[in-house]
Amino acid sequence: MPAFLDISNIDMVFPTPKGDFTALKSVNLKIKKGEFISLIGHSGCGKSTVLNVVAGLYKATLGGVILDNKEVNAPGPERAVVFQNHSLLPWLTAYQNVELAVKQVFSKTMGKAEMAEWIEHNLRLVHMDHAMHKRPDEISGGMKQRVGIARALSMQPQVLLMDEPFGALDALTRAHMQDSLMEIQEELNNTVIMITHDVDEAVLLSDRIVMMTNGPAATVGEILDVNLERPRSRLSLAEDKEYNRLRSAVLTFLYEKQRKIEPIKSATEKKAVLSSAS
Amino acid sequence: MSAVKRHLAFASVERLSVQSLLLAFQRLFKSLLLPALGIVAFLILWSFTASSINTSLGEFPGPQAVLEQVQNLYQEHRIEREKEAAFYQRQEERNAKRLAEDPTYTAKVRAYTGKETFWDQIVTSLLTVMSGFLLAVAIAIPLGIAIGLSKKLNTAINPVIQVFKPVSPLAWLPLVTIVVSAVYVTPDPMFAKSFINSLVTVTLCCIWPMVINTSVGVASLNKDWVNVSKVLRLPALRHIKKIVLPASIPAIFTGMRMSLGIAWMVLIAAEMLAQNPGLGKFVWDEFQNGSSQSLSRIMTAVLVIGLIGFFLDRSMLQLQRLLSWDKSMELR
After folding, report:
1. A79 contacts on B by Cβ (under 8 Å)
2. Does residue A165 fall inside a structural domain?
3. What is the pLDDT of residues A236-252, one digit of tens each?
């Protein structure tokens, strides 16, 4: 049986003035329907590039992505993206931001009242119904990201792509958002690819953790199955043996096998090149 | 609550109100008194300097002379209006009389052809500048959006824009005049040729800042918003309406304000040079006239031109405040 989402043999090469830069090399990943996948790796290893290829925002140099037996070649609402910096349109209210998406996706299949109900339903899902007529600059960072998630969910995507959705939030808000996301996931059972830097977040939320090697020419290093029972609670898991085993497996991968070796000298050189270029 | 506590609370409330009063006074001082001080200082400097400049037409007009002229000009305007009313009344009476004598007579109605007053010139200038500016807006904003969205189009058009941008209105004017009189030939013209001349000159000169600012605003669109639009697969027109236009409102308005300022300056020069009706012609006529009042009349016109320019800019700013989504942005 073919995978629901098949990322096969992706190479990504960016042309630069100093010659080609290979960001990704032979990335392979098969994802089942309803699976929650975390992509983890050091910064600059090409996690976002993988996500952007799946989203259709980048075109892979080699290889391709097949979603539900169709090749991905352009961005589309069936692969909704939650961006790191919420990217809400600041001139629209939370409601209008979701409305823009809903109108675009469902204006042919839903009536006006139905659409309004659907918009409100999605905002309720992320607990933003109390502030749905506020504009992004009137709400907090966590709330903005909630609206961003509501907007993505409202498109009823086949795959939900999240690019470090909670990266810009403080630790407490992040924990809160993770709980919300688990709650939503329990209800909707979406197929999700989430990029993260956070080991705890990856173990807590995922069915599988995909660990990427360092770039350039990054690829999938190891894949870790997370067979913790759901619903998961961060408090009881803190003492859980399996949880801690998984956690240390990811940490070992990141800090022993794929330790980011960047000698101080080369780092300063890099900086010098960057500053002279700009 | 004990008496002492109550007393303390009362004292703090009192202190608070004194403080807020002080703050209010400070704000008043900053927003009203300081500008007033500046204006008074200018008036003193002006009248002092004016009295020490002697010209062939007498002393340079000071504030006093200008004030007199404002009254004079208003008086002249009223007299002219009375004359006009009287003219139409006479005409009507005459026609009624002829009609009574001979029922087959078709009345001729002639328009009053009196001299245009200072106030008429102001109205003409304002109408011309707004028409020229609106025509420029109608061309510049779609063009700017197109250039901003397409790098190729920008590379192709940019050299042309850069060359025409610094051209003085006075250089355009002869060409515009000749072309308009050659092209705009109708038996029953809706607009006067002089109006079209001024309008086209204004448009040609004030279109560029708007084109450039709009295109820069559109080109520097936040990448995330573009990605949102791509993921949603917004069609081109919806993309422009929902994402590009709102995002570039600040840049578009910056261009529009610059353009309106240029439009107003250009118009006065064009009217002066081409003898087209308006404030510029008023200044030129007074200069040619060379009476003892001419200088103070010109000085009055200078101040009125400045005030109208200021008023135009403020109106634009108010419009921007009304339309801008970013209320936290400081506009000045």
Report:
1. 231
2. no
3. 888 899 999 999 999 99
